[in-house]
Prior knowledge:
The chain is α+β, with helices and mostly antiparallel strands. It contains 20 helices and eleven strands.
Amino acid sequence: MSLASFPTVVLDDRFARELPELAVPWEAAAAPEPQLLVLNAELAADLGLDAAALRSPDGVGLLTGTLVPDGARPVAQAYAGHQFGGFSPRLGDGRALLLGELVDQAGRPRDLHLKGSGRTPFARGGDGLAAVGPMLREYLLSEAMHALGIPTTRSLAVVATGRPVQRETVLPGAVLARVAASHLRVGSFQYARATGDVDLLRRLADHAIERHHPAAAQAEQPYLALFEAVVAAQAALVAQWMLVGFVHGVMNTDNMTISGETIDYGPCAFLDAYDPATVYSSIDEGGRYAYGNQPGIAQWNLARLAEALLPLLAEDQDAAIGVATEALGRFAPAYAAAWTGGMRAKLGLPAAPAGPADPEVLDLAEELLGSLQSGHVDWTTAFRALGDAARGDAEPVRGLVLDLPALDAWLGRWRALEPDGAAMDRVNPVYVPRNHLVEEALDAATAGDLAPFERLHEVLAAPYHPRPGLERYAAPAPEDFARAYRTFCGT
């Protein structure tokens, strides 16, 4: 249907045109009483969309998928995936639609995608709907990650639909409008490979190269170069997660992007007390996706991508396995280099030559992390307090740990390296989406009060700059809350 408020908006259907085998044309479910809850005006402007127009009835129709520009062709995307280690050959967008692609102010294509827009042929018995709380969670967490400088999908808006959603209780329904470099995933390649159609696999790889890793097109082996680029992007991304204490919670292969963006903020959370075994997701009973397991799981997921790409890497399968294995072997050193470089910055030390071998930082980090774990010390608070210690005031960090003689010895060795406290403050956030504050805001929003959500979102938009009156947003969760906290996927 034509949108009077958006006469110049063009939603390209390039994905559907180039890869029709992975796109099922579909329409969003009706929203009986739509109400715009939150709109990202800054992101709208970057996409060439007028925020005032998005707040109009036509704009809300666009944000729910119930009104789309002429020529747009919304589709549900097909993909496969390993979920908690078990392969599902047909997953796909069970409650989501790709409305199309926009071009942002920098000339980059961006997907406009909906979540919670109703059942599709991939729904697998689900209702295709989403509730206000989980959609606001994704908005809040994805925008917080963006403010932290971590590659991520973005959130454009959340619209309450006026439709009730049955979960453990009846909840108000909502649709999230999500923006991404694309929604290509490891699972997209697994789906294409499972069809046995090598031409489809090749077209998908060409599409990914052009959209995300164009330098691969000039390589002697473009598809190997594509794989190497994804390995590098994911190594850097997961290192950034680890450095800020982010726990994704559901690192299935359908939730790993080819672009290197964080995607799917279902049962995610941020560390309270440091412990590599931390699991928040209620469905991760075996701890597969625990905080400390994330680098290894990322490499495992990339091995599944390598398997999917084998027909494109060499005619002989043994040769293809050989080059894929060699390329996959670069993940561990790339991750180590990104993590040690990031930890060096968190400790305020000058940059060292690039590479995974950094014994100075590794020794310091190992001892520090051991102290944090044994003392059940809050991750974010600890590194911010170390910034004070670099400026000569060690009491804030000394008040956090149990073994003071060991900490004092560590502080002496670290201070001898002349850490830069100001530099530390630029990489160690004051404010992260603390789990108790997130839940407080979402509970209030579900009950109709958006003020706590809006205030928390405002705080998280500037995570590195302390401001008076915001002390509760920097404080760790109460111990009883942190000990029992669990997250849920929202479906």
